[in-house]
Amino acid sequence: MLFYFLLLPVALALAPGGPWDVFNYAPKSKTVYARDVYKSVGGLVSLNFDKVDNMSSVSLAFTESPAYVNPLASDDSAYPTPDMNYDGVFTIPAPLSKGHWTQPSYSLRGGFRYLTIASHSNTTLELSNVSCAISFMPHVDDLRAYTGYFYTSDPAFHDPDFLTKVWYAGAYTVQTNTVPLDTGRQFPFLYAATGWFNNGTIGVAGPILVDVQYGPVIWPSQSPPSALPQAGPPLTLYRPDSDIYHAWNLIGTHNYYLYSGDHDWLSTVWTNYTRAVAFLEGKVDSTGLMNVTSPRDWGRIGGGGYNAEGNAILYKVLLTASDLANYMGDEFLSAVWGANATALKAKYNEAFWVESAGMYRDNSTTTLYPQDANSFAVLYNLTLSDDQKVAVSEGLEKNWNDLGPVVPELPDTISPFISGFELQAHFEAGQDNRALDLLRREWGYMLYTNLSVQSTLLEGFTANGSLGYQSSRGYNYDPSYTSHAHGWSSGPTSALTFYILGLTVTSPRGATWSVNPHINGGLPGAEGGFETSLGWFGVKWVLQANQFFMEINTPEGTDGLVKLPRVGSVVVDEVAVDVGANGEIMLNGGKHTLIGGTDRSCKCVEEKNASPIAGSKIVIRSNKSIYRVKTHPNIVANTPAEPSSSLEAELKLPVEEAEADPAEDPDVPVEDPAIEPEALTPDEIADPVLEDKSGQKRPIYYGRNKPTHAVALIEPDIVGAVLVAVALALDNEDDAAATEKSPD
Question: Of 103, 133, 163, which residue sits at a domain end?
Answer without folding.
Answer: 133
